[in-house]
Amino acid sequence: MYSLETLLLTVARERFLSRKIVFTNGCFDILHRGHIDCLGKAATFGDFLVVGVNSDASTKRLKGPQRPINKEGDRLLLLAALEFVDAVILFDEDTPYELITAVKPDVLAKGGDYQIDTIVGAKEVLGWGGAVEVIPYEQGYSTTGIIEKINRL
User: Fold this and answer.
1) Which of 12-16, 21-25, 32-36, 78-82 has the lowest mean pLDDT?
2) 4-152: CATH class
3) Which residues contact 94 (CB under 8 A, 6 or more apart)?
4) How large is the average pLDDT for residues 21-48?
5) Which residue, 32, 71, 78, 30, is CA-closest to 51?
6) Distance (Å, rounded) from C-alpha 113 to C-alpha 139?
7) I need a labelling partner for 53 at 20 to 30 A (CA). Which of 19, 25, 43, 102 fits?
8) Element housing 131 (H / E)
9) Nearest one of 10, 13, 22, 18 to 51, comparing CA atoms
């Protein structure tokens, strides 16, 4: 896991080496095939994939009082272990806006059924000449679906 200061230094080094920075984010509460698919595709848009991860408090505010299932340290560790993820960083806000504007990625990738104008940070990334990529969800895979299936057992 990176601190913001260390991440910004690392990103500066990667840029110096002419590497393209990709940013994506999420709660990644129960890591599943849909997450892996989305992260793997996000990694193909550049050379260095940064994953912003909602803190436990942020996840609880976004997903409800029963979430997260997995603690932030565990979620960070699992994501950092993925071969195509280069950096993970925790954020406590409800959106990654501050993180995106600090990192200034070349590509902002987001999974889901979003329109570019509804993605947090998209306007800023496009404004500095970057790109925004929307990665369709892999149907049938969601943390909510997994939790509902477990609750039916």
Assistant:
1) 32-36
2) alpha beta
3) 58, 61, 62
4) 95
5) 78
6) 11
7) 19
8) strand 131-135
9) 22
Please state, in angstroms and rounded to a whole number, the distance separating the CA atoms of residues 78 and 31.
8
Beta bridge partners, 52, equal 25, 89
* Residue 2 half-sphere exposure toward CB, CA atoms < 13 A: 22
Which residues on adjacent β-strands are paired with residue 24? 51
Determine the pLDDT at residue 144: 67
pLDDT exceeds cutoff 90 at 139: no
Q: Which of 26, 60, 41 is nearest to 142 (CA)?
A: 26
Q: Which residue shows structure tokens 């803190």?
A: 55
* Tens-place pLDDT, residues 5-20: 999 999 999 999 999 9
Contacting residues for 2 by C-beta, under 8 A, at least 6 apart = 10, 87, 88, 89
Q: Are 130 and 101 in contact (CB under 8 A)?
A: no
